[in-house]
Write a structure and sequence with these properties.
This protein has 20 helices and 22 strands. The longest helix is centred in the first third of the chain and has 27 residues. The chain has 4 domains: about 30 residues; about 240 residues, ATPase, nucleotide binding domain (Nucleotidyltransferase, domain 5, 2-Layer Sandwich); about 140 residues, ATPase, nucleotide binding domain (Nucleotidyltransferase, domain 5), CATH 3.30.420.40; about 120 residues, no CATH class. It has about 575 residues and is α/β, with parallel strands linked by helices. The strands form 7 sheets. Strands 16-17-15-14-20-21-22 form a 7-stranded mixed sheet, with helices on both faces. A 5-stranded mixed sheet has the order 3-2-1-6-13. Strands 4-5 form a two-stranded antiparallel sheet. About 45% of the residues lie in helices and about 15% in strands. Belongs to the FGGY kinase family. GO terms for molecular function: kinase activity. Keywords: Kinase, Transferase. This is ATPase.
Length: about 575
């Protein structure tokens, strides 16, 4: 019996017509909901079968977990907010917070899966972990952390960095793991003879969950120089280091301390029972899931912006800011302002990394929030940022003669060893809100600009495109215009820019299990992930470029003021 016959027999011809029209109207009106329901059914099946990839990134202010499907769309996410702390003279995060944040981000993601799809997350097709690069995590033979985690933000390794740069004839920044290790040697720290293993934050998490002391080549390139031909640590430099410290009589050799290097697409272990329980204390997550190599946030930024091909680059904006340009050839000489690292598949990359970017800007926005609350207004965070940032577009091109340094920590590019945030103006400066906001935006990219000028002006590095990502670009246009003015190249933001490093890490995990035979990472990203992704490009405006240039000259001239603040303004304001 057909439904048409049933309706006719029950209500007659007129009633049948009304019901039929109602059904058509309802289907049209609810088509989107029906499609979503069908999609949810398909995603539920994909989640159950493990046709997904999980990426978790431990950033400087947030730990984020992202689950994606085989179309590289985000299914669910979770996060944990945290901040580094200055303890014992070192910027650090505690082991307790590392594990708490990891578990919290995963638990939130798992709850979202249950809430949206009605299924308990038990497996994934692949997993990857990433984190802020560099730093120093040193363990003894029992796996005990010997000293608190020393992050990239510490500017305490100047002597070591200078000596190693001279020894290797290769720039060793203060942030790099080898600089931290050698500084500990120079300081004759008591823990050094007992070291069995050193790694980065991503390598630490990977080790906990797999038992494998592994690291992706991009993150490894921020620990120790990489030989492009062998895709491994530079053997000659390893020998030079061992010779340099031979008189100390340590029982270890450097190569024995470092994690094994993997390139993207290689399996770097699988989730153990202990690892599954650590990530998911509820016990639902099953072991045996393959893991891709752990990577640094620079590598995931390149992946998330499709910037792993030569002559491409990206700018990542957060607590720190860095620009990464994939090179066609080696630089002509060593520059202390430029890091030489690699893409996740091992291509050479020139990296201009500034320790300070958004923290001081965020602090000023927080002050405006306090004022608005004191006036009785409860303003949405997104709107507050949008209003204040857009005021910068109304400003004088150079920021009205104002000057700021958002140095919450030392800044290696400008040679400032300690953090002293400053805002400076002269009686003749044009002091208003628009110029104030423009100046702080300019300042966020001031040190980065000095590093990038080396590449473009001294080395004549060709850049076809710059992709930008980070929270600043959630406000349309403003951030792009400022970065375009700073770098004097067109800057694009893709519709995926808000996905961030955790999404980039999930893509690397997906590449592990989803690549075709012989398919390069660049081809995988270009032909599959970003094939239909849209973006917006903003070309540099001549007035903005000229204005930023004037600001940078003022910025360089004023560094003596910043240095004086370091020398005369005591820690904690002299308390």
């Amino acid at each position: 019996m057909s439904i048409d016959w049933f309706i006719m027999e029950s209500v007659g011809q007129t009633g049948a017509a009304i019901i039929a029209l109602t059904i058509v109207w309802t289907c049209n009106r609810e088509g989107e909901r029906i499609n979503v329901t069908r999609s949810q059914v398909n995603l539920k099946e994909a989640i159950t079968k493990g046709e997904t990839s999980l990426g978790i990134e431990l950033g400087s202010t947030r730990i984020k977990a992202v689950l994606i499907d085989q179309s590289f769309e985000t299914i669910a996410s979770g996060s944990f907010e945290w901040e580094n702390q200055l303890k014992g003279g070192y910027w650090t995060y505690s082991q307790e917070d590392i594990l708490k944040g990891l578990q919290t981000a995963y638990r939130e993601l798992k709850q979202e899966v249950d809430r949206n799809y009605g299924v308990t997350l038990r497996t994934a097709g692949s997993i990857g972990f990433s984190a802020m690069m560099h730093g120093y995590l040193a363990f003894d033979g029992k796996g005990e952390l010997l000293v608190p985690f020393r992050t990239w933000r510490n500017a305490t390794t100047g002597q070591a960095a200078r000596e190693l740069t001279n020894l290797f004839q290769f720039n060793i920044p203060e942030r790099w793991s080898i600089a931290h290790l050698y500084q500990a040697v120079l300081n004759e720290e008591e823990h050094v003879p007992r070291i069995d293993f050193i790694t980065t934050l991503s390598g630490y998490i990977h080790w906990l969950l797999t038992g494998n002391k592994a690291i992706g080549i991009g993150d490894a390139s921020g620990m120790f120089p990489i030989d492009e031909a062998s895709h491994n640590y530079h053997a000659t430099m390893i020998g030079q280091f061992d010779d340099r410290i031979a008189s100390k009589g340590y029982a270890w050799k450097l190569e024995e301390l470092l994690p094994k290097v993997y390139v993207s697409g290689e399996q770097a272990g699988e989730l153990t029972e202990a690892g599954a329980l650590l990530l998911d204390p509820a016990g639902d997550l099953q072991p045996g899931i393959p893991l891709c190599p752990p990577e640094g946030d620079a590598g995931t930024g390149m992946v998330a912006t499709n910037s792993v091909k030569k002559r491409t680059g990206n700018v990542s904006v957060g607590t720190s800011v860095f620009a990464m340009i994939v090179l066609e050839k080696e630089l002509s000489k060593v520059y202390p302002e430029i890091d030489m690292v690699t893409t996740p598949d091992g291509s050479p990359v020139a990296m201009s990394h500034a320790n300070n970017c958004s923290s001081d800007l965020n602090a000023w926005v927080g002050l405006f929030r306090e004022f608005s609350e004191a006036m009785g207004f409860d303003i949405d965070s997104g709107k507050l940022f949008s209003v204040l940032l857009n005021k910068a577009l109304e400003a004088d091109p150079d920021g009205g003669g104002l000057l700021s340094y958002g140095y919450l920590s030392g800044e290696n590019i400008t040679g400032i060893e300690k953090g002293r945030p400053l805002f400076v103006r002269s009686p003749e400066s044009h002091f208003n809100l628009a110029n104030f906001m423009r100046t702080h935006l300019f300042s966020a990219f001031g040190a980065l600009k000095l590093g990038m000028d080396i590449l473009t002006e001294n080395e004549h590095v060709a850049i076809d495109s710059i992709l930008a990502h980070g929270g600043l670009f959630k406000t349309p246009v403003v951030g792009q215009r400022i970065v375009a003015a700073a770098l004097n190249v067109p800057v694009s933001v893709m519709s995926t820019a808000g996905e961030g490093g955790a999404w980039g890490m999930a893509l690397l995990a997906s590449y592990l299990t989803g690549k075709a035979s012989g398919e390069s990472l660049a081809d995988f990203l270009e032909g599959k992930v970003f094939k239909d992704v849209e973006g917006t490009e903003i070309a540099p405006d001549a007035k903005d470029v000229e204005g930023f240039g004037a600001f940078v000259e003022r910025y360089k001239a004023g560094l003596a003021i910043e240095q004086a603040a370091v020398e005369h303004l005591l820690e904690n304001g002299g308390r």
